[in-house]
Amino acid sequence: MLGAAGCGSTSDRSTGGGEPTTSLTSGPDAGPGSACLSTPTKGDSTVMVDWVDFVQLDGTQYVSGADGSVPPVATDQLGSVVGRVECQLSVLKFHAQPGPAVDGDAAFITVGTDVHAVQGYGTSCRVTAQIAGVNRVYLAHADLDGVSRAVPCAKAP
């Protein structure tokens, strides 16, 4: 999976209260190498990036669409907000190969979009974000022998 340096730092994640529990930083306090701070959104790209649909929170990359069809989440199945997108990498114009993604990065999810837990699943398994009015499911992924794969609990019914 190809990611890029983005924006963010994290704090302790909890499951209650409805407030984002991933504290993401953008602007001048964002981490070093932040693609959102150092990569323009206008002009020509000299590097083409073929993004997968992902979001990264608390060191975990969650991917949508790479593991077969997963039905969207009904609104009444949304859990608490566990993070917020701070950097939409697909709108950046890269002039060098992007670095690794960081917390708060997403390929296609708009900046400011809340990421929710899914009732019945731990956030170590899956999360959801609303895109075009649909609560799209993102499955937690881990690298296994150099290949990104959904963690077993992410695909469990």
Structural notes for this entry:
- The protein is mainly beta and 157 residues long.
- It has 2 helices and 9 strands.
- The protein has helices at residues 35-38, 152-155; strands spanning 53-57, 60-64, 78-84, 87-88, 105-106, 114-118, 126-131, 134-144, 147-150.
- Strands 1, 2, 3, 6, 7, 8 and 9 form a 7-stranded antiparallel sheet that branches. It has a two-stranded parallel ribbon with strand order 4-5.
- Strand 6 (114-118) and strand 7 form a beta hairpin.
- The two termini are 25 Å apart.
- Residues 1-33 have low confidence and may be disordered.
Number of helices: 2
Helix content: under 10%
Largest sheet: 7 strands, antiparallel
Mean pLDDT: 75
> Any idea what the radius of gyration is?
15 Å
The parts where pLDDT drops under 50 for at least 5 residues are 1-33
Shape: globular
Number of strands: 9
Series of H and E elements: HEEEEEEEEEH
Strand content: 25-35%
Give the CA-CA distance, first to last residue: 25 Å
Question: What's this model, at a glance?
Answer:
With 157 residues, this protein is mostly beta strands.
Outline the secondary-structure elements:
Blueprint: H1 35-38, E1 53-57, E2 60-64, E3 78-84, E4 87-88, E5 105-106, E6 114-118, E7 126-131, E8 134-144, E9 147-150, H2 152-155
Parallel strand pairs: 4-5
Antiparallel strand pairs: 1-2, 2-8, 3-6, 6-7, 7-8, 8-9
